[in-house]
Specification:
The structure is a single chain. This protein is an alpha/beta fold. It has one domain: Rossmann fold, CATH 3.40.50.1360. Helix content is about 35%, strand content about 20%. It has ten helices and 14 strands. A seven-stranded parallel beta sheet has the order 3-14-13-8-4-5-7, covered by helices on one side. It has a five-stranded antiparallel beta sheet with strand order 1-2-11-12-6. Strands 9-10 form a two-stranded antiparallel sheet. Strand 1 and strand 2 form a beta hairpin.
Amino acid sequence: MSKPKPDRIKRRVAGNNVWLSQQHTETQVSQNGFTIRQINPCVLENEAAVGRAMWREIEDAAAAKPDELVIILLGGRGAQALHRLLGEMAQTSDADPLLRRLHVFTQDALAPMSMNNGLSFVRDFERLLGEDFFKKVKSFNSIQTDAADLENELARYAAKLDSLRGIDIFFLGLGPEPNAASHLAYIRPGSGATAGDLAGMIPISSSILEHHINKFKVGGSAVTEADEAECRAVTHILTLGPAAILKARRIVQSIVDAGTSPAKRDSYRRVLNTEIAVDPAARAAQLDDNPGLWTRLHPNVRSLVLPDVLDA
């Protein structure tokens, strides 16, 4: 694999994982520069209410800022109600002034995979958001998962995101991992991510692939046998990293699928209740062991959940 990268991006290897950060950052940004915070769940009655709350977050961000907005879409169940709502709005002209201000980015992808695979996040976004949405937004940006050089493509994508005036809303979910750990975007336990990493390329596991395929099937995606076979042959996850999350002006987390993914209950409870260490080395180990804890270092988080997420 070739190694040329956009000028502002530098490369770091942690085990089998490749992490990309900003070239102009001479020293690694430290997780110790962030204050540890508590998360207070906002419990809503159903997925539709979560979708409306997410839309209001976009409206609030637009009201507070007169120019372009950058948002990071969430794949899977967590934001499907929002995406359906956005698709409906895009069929009218009512929200056009706001939609035309949006730079929309995806947060992760499986690779290598053809861009027309029904198990890709982009195809799912197209299904729910509809053609009118993509015609109206200022830009839609996704990782090209069929690129000949995936690492260079991820660096290009990270550089483009970094060239804008910051992320206004990072929509996040929470993925379950063994031992009640969790992943954010697809920052996985043990992947060696640090606070300075803007994006990463992580070897994938069969358990994550199984979770991904089941999630899409439950969510209503049309999946062919060929799509599933190609997906099961994927080798890596390309993901935005902790630096993108921590630099976002607002994190809006949504967890709505504890019924079909019950392990999320324990994973979410562990994020809420973990006592994060003051000692730098111990804290770094905690964040690597359970990447869901990165949200506890952000000053502006709203966590939207359904009642069953908090069930014991």
